[in-house]
Protein 1
Amino acid sequence: MQEYCYEEKIGENILERKEESLLTDRYSRQQLFKQIGSNGQKKIKNKHVLIVGAGALGSAGAEAFVRAGIGKLTIIDRDYVEWSNLQRQQLYNEADAECQIPKAIAAEKHLKQINSEVEIEALIMDAKADNLGNLLSGVDVIIDGTDNFDIRFILNDLSHKYNIPWIYGSCVGSYGATYTIIPGRTPCLHCILKEVPAGGATCDTAGIISPAVQIVSAYQVAEAFKILVDDFSMLRNTFLLFDVWSNQHHSIKLTKMKKEGCLTCGTMRTYPYLSYENQMKTEVLCGRNTVQIRPSRSIGYSFDQMEKRLCVHGKVARNPYLLSCQLQNYRLVIFRDGRVFIHGTNSIQLAKSLYHRLLG
């Protein structure tokens, strides 16, 4: 019996050493990078990253974190894979688009095939102030993979309320931008922009090329690695903007933009974008197969600019009070005060998706 137990123990030790060797080999090149090393790799393995949005930026970031051996990855997305996504959203394939698989589920499937050791939590949900807060326990960094500023300002408030760093990222056309926000140290998004910007260009109105996505994601992931291994001194303290097509690259110092009176990160915090009055309002109009979307504040749209952007998607008509765009299956009606009717659906989720894709 003793011999058997001894042999069994020897076998277990050999198996453990083999598993350790495989683990070391897997991340060996990453560990050779001295700023990470074996200690940094252990830290990464014990950290939790939350990605909000599993589109172009979110899927690129998710793959990078999983390949790097992150301990836990939570992915939130409300949408499903479409054919137009495949040009730049690297985790998905034609089968995902043909079957309209939710992005969170498709991402989870492909990521597990890349690294089965990572704990992956995939959530099909519309990220909002009232449900994101419940998901932040144990999160070490938040990655912005969203497509609109309404959610970004909510993330900004949550980041400071729960003291979790977050990394902003956006891209459209050949442009990209990214900024790392550390509660208590850097200016926050509210300091920089003060309020939710009026609708701007989106991928659906201005297009996008994949190199812009990859550059933004690379900067986001690199900054996240610094946070995960506790190398905060090496974080980039500038707002980075670039145009990969025209070879422009700008890095803007924002240190002086931090405001003591900021309602998100200042001395008298109220976290304004977590309150109902500062959130987007949606409602289904009874009997009209229509959803009304009312932004968090009044927006004075330029109908001239809006007409130029939307005419490529459908027939545009306007009068002094409203502008409408007839799409293939839906009709958007935009009022001067920023309210929008989405005719042709009672689905709030679909209406919001159309709104953000076309109006920013």
Note: The chain has two domains: 33-274, 280-359.
Protein 2
Amino acid sequence: MRIALDAMGGEHSPAAEVEGAVAAAKAHAIEVVLVGKKEAVEAELKKHRYDLPVVEASQVIEMTDHPSEVMRDKRDSSIAVGMKLLKNKGVDAFVSAGNTGAVMTAATLILGRIEGIERPALSILVAFPSNSVLLLDVGANANCKPDYLVQFAQMGSVYMAKIFGIENPRVGLLSNGEEDTKGNSLVCEAHKMLRATKLNFVGNIEGHDLPSNSTDVLVTDGFTGNVLIKVGEGVGEIIVQSVKQAIASRPYLKAVALILKPALRSAFNSVDYSEYGGAPLLGVNGNVIIAHGRSNAKAIKSALFIAKRAVEQDIVSAIRKGIN
């Protein structure tokens, strides 16, 4: 399996990307094709004494660049070159921690949307002690129409049914109240449309109900979803730091912490964004994973593993068959 990685995309590129790529290649038996400025990428590879193929891309899309620049002014960017490799079947998947809007634009223009899908959506599986919820959109579409949310629900339902074997997945709509009339105009209209579908729509879901095992798929617009995910990351980091500080300030707790180390590690991992790696971009004709902009090597390795799973489980075909 060959997976292309945007070596110039994240805040810590290319060092984090190369380190994560080497770790993933060793751990998951995949060939990672690094896309970016060859001289810089190969310099990082030498530090790890490991060979991976490098494809030259002379330009870099910055986080501050407008997404349209990926195809207009920077056609030789690492994002555009990597996406073309995927389009031409030179690789099986593409991973980038770069500009989310640019990755989505490149995927839409180069790979094309699955027939029947108006807007692709970023999805992420959020794990809780008693259940997991597929949340989408988490950043691809800041402004949405009600029918976009319906399509997100359809893709999410197919994903959970085909990939995770959940029969008739429950679909919820994120809102500020469980009553049918709660929410802004987007939520209220989407609610009516979802009621009219054949999906197993369970109604509005409030934020505090996420861990209650009340839904398998949770739909929202990309702006709200992205804020929700980042707030969760922040809260997770606060919890981890608070526990570590409490242990460090009380010597007698260090012995207890050693005994509880496996449990603490498991709990910390559940709120560590680097464990999840990246989010699949659902709705395009190719396996595209978008990682966090501040991804470290561990997060890049995790994102490459997510890409491997996407290929193995043929997510694109599953959505294509489920939608059409």
Note: The chain has a mean pLDDT of 87.
Protein 3
Amino acid sequence: MRIKIVSAVAFAALCIAVALVHAQEPQQSTSSTGSQQSGMDIQGIKTYLLGPGDVVEIRVFGQPDLNSTAQVDGDGNLNSLPFLEAPIRAKCRSEKEVQKEIATAYAKFINNPQVSVRISERNSRQPAVVFGAVRSPTRVEMKRKVRLNELVAVSGGFTERAAGTIQILHTEPLMCPGPGEEADAAPIDGTKIPLEIIKINELRSGKVEANPVIRPGDYVLVTEAEPVYITGAVVSPTAVFLREQLTLGRALAMVGGTRKEAKNTEVKIYRQKPGSIEQEIIPVDYAAIKKNQKPDVILMPYDVIEVPEAGMFSSQRLGTTLMNAVIGGASTAISTAGTRVIY
């Protein structure tokens, strides 16, 4: 009966936590998106390469009839420029490169044309989305190369629920690959999931491979840890979040350890059987684990750990029981004794 009650309480707590997280996330995203995007957008866009959907303003000095505003089409070209029949290739080229080609094209009609090209709208890159165990889930405009650590920084950093891994899902091929990036520009195979897994501890340690460049359109999920519930004779009964390879010993240490009256030899782990509503009970001799006589136990999501109390006259509690009895008896004798007056 006790186990059913513990399981019911644990399940209810989980449902409430999930509901609160989902209720708060949209508000965080809405309130924080603007400032975070502007923080990313103002840096390093001089090397921006054009793509379909971008809009450029073209000015020819002394020739107002040749001034125009054009959008890069789906094929990556600028079409219908005044007096030019051939399209100007713009995809994966900079403003200066497009400007030089337009000037060359107009040189057939004008002596030494002075041309300027300015990007007025950058629409070719889909924003990257970061969500999960971050403080401010948001969308980040990808106007330059952005690495994973920057994306995490503008989303406010990790929360205490971060499980230890980051999943990066690529939704689009890389538009303008650099040297060594040709494979990323290949069309995404619909039969394979283009998923990349990064470990948070490797990112924090500065490992280069753990800090990749995020592509436009990427979905970056910081996975959230699932809970483990600890109850019974521990210092602070509570739920802890399951990190990578969390053991029973570490979990109990996270709640302050077991109390003096704990029966460490009879710890129980209640674990849901896969695909079933039934639980299995795993007995654990935690006292032997502490003495390195038995291996520690790897915990699973939603495990319920119960540390029982020893009986009043067990070896763990005998001294305390006798001491309380002596103190209690002495207190009773003092309180019931009559008062003697000496003359």
Note: Confidence is low (pLDDT under 50) at residues 1-39, 339-343.
